[in-house]
Amino acid sequence: MSAIDWDRPGEIPTIAEPRALPPGTGTLLMNDIAARAQTAGVPRLRYAGPYPTHALFSSLLRSFRTTGTLETFTADVLDRALHIARDPIAVDFTPAPFMRSSTSYGYIDVRDGAADRVRIDGVVYDQQEQPGSLARFDGTRAILTVGVPIAEIARFDGTTELVDGPHPIPAFQTAANGTEFPAALRDELADAATVFVPAPLAADVTAAIRDRTTEWADLGWRAAKATADSFSMHVGFLALAADHMDLFAQRLSYHLAMIAQQTVLDELLASRRR
């Protein structure tokens, strides 16, 4: 990790292998930085690293607030990754750390006096949409959603008291599981995915989707999953196909774009290490 002043953090550091951290510790690390900055009276921080991705932007919103846009934050992601850039990006993040309370089923994060996020049996249900996840928290319910709810896991009283659940994530067993997307649908989604990724990555993301098979699968709380030569999409998206075709196409292309973008960046990083 890049060096920072722990008593008065002046920037958001870059972590070389964030996914190698134990689950949840990256969030706690960023929250600790936000809390230390707030205590020290630091009004704003900027990210100074080579990987300003959609996933990082979403993660930072758990402990910071910003008036900057995702488009501005991710605009130069490919160039910064290629050059291992360390200069700060001109997007200000204001410290807004959460307080975490442990529960019998995981934890609840409280911000501004209200429940902001819950973890149930290892799955984080966040008010902010997280790339690759169907798990959301709407202030009173932990749900799985594809644009419309497909499962309710727990219900709260509007604060932190659990009033129903938690229930196990249901199995999504349908005849579609294991079925490959037709080539025409895959190509349409590849074209549509470009609006969700930074322009420098658009061509690579499109190629990644076109070059791999994509199939339906029961992925639990995950929206999408990548292997070495294929992508899988949660079969629950089919709940939109009959009556919400526009939303079906939008949600499917968004989550496919996110998993393809991460695949492209992982391949880029791996090639630089060789």
Topology:
Blueprint: H1 25-39, H2 54-60, E1 64-65, H3 70-74, H4 77-83, E2 94-95, E3 99-102, E4 106-111, E5 114-120, E6 123-126, E7 135-137, E8 141-145, E9 149-156, E10 162-164, H5 183-192, H6 199-210, E11 213-217, E12 224-226, E13 230-234, H7 245-273
Summarize the structure.
The strands form 4 sheets. The chain has a 4-stranded antiparallel beta sheet, with no helix packed on it. It is built from 7 helices and 13 strands.
Question: How would you portray this structure in words?
Answer:
The mean pLDDT is 88. This protein has 274 residues and is an alpha+beta fold. It is globular and about 55 Å long. The chain has seven helices and 13 strands. The longest helix has 29 residues.
Please give a handful of descriptors for the protein shown:
single chain; about 270 residues; alpha+beta; about 30% helix; four-stranded antiparallel sheet; 13 strands
Percentage of residues assigned to helices: 25-40%
The radius of gyration over CA amounts to 19 Å
Which residue ranges are poorly predicted, with pLDDT under 50 across at least 5 consecutive positions?
A: none
* Percent of residues in beta strands: 15-25%
Number of helices: 7
Mean pLDDT: 88
Helices and strands, in order, run as: HHEHHEEEEEEEEEHHEEEH
Give a short account of the largest sheet: 4 strands, antiparallel
Distance between the termini: 20 Å
Number of β-strand runs: 13
How would you classify the quaternary structure? single chain
Q: Outline, from the CA principal axes?
A: globular
The spatial strand order of the largest sheet comes to: 3-4-5-6
